[in-house]
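Researcher: Structure for this, please.
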Amino acid sequence: MKTLVIGAGAAGLAAAQDLQKANHQVVVLEAQHRVGGRIRTDRSFAAVPIELGAEFIHSSQVPTYPLPAQFGLRTHYFNQQEDTLVRLPDGSLRTIAQVGCQERGYNNIRMVDWPAASGEESLAEYLQRNQLSGQKIPYKLQEYISDFDNPRRLSAQAALEFLYDKSAEEGDFRILDGYD
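Model: Predicted structure, token format:
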């Protein structure tokens, strides 16, 4: 069987690989001059790879976790919530967890009393209903949107389950030689 896969991002490449394993003849069509979708590593700026798109493997529970080992790539583990600092407009430094919780008065960004999702509402509808936009969107929800898709196509219920998922607290892995 012949199959055309549109897009050479992570999902398109994974689909092509699965189809090929199922004995399909696969052609991948990509509009850009490169593969990778949101994965974009710049090697021209510094002596180390700079990630301009996707940057992390979020926990050992995601399907992409075994790939670096499979391809002999080095990774570095860190707890993004506790290890990554951001500089605030007043010049002070805070961890991402501190920034994400500060506005809402919470100590732990995952263990909060989020309003329940209403039926089958999208994440976009949920955010609008709870008056969360721009930087008021909690960091972990911003991460979820970035990792998965457009909030109009995401389930608010699935996003809230992600916030309460203990395995996601594990931390992140960065591919040292570049995500590309």
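Researcher: Any notable elements?
Model: The chain has two domains: 2-74, 81-168. The chain has seven helices and nine strands.
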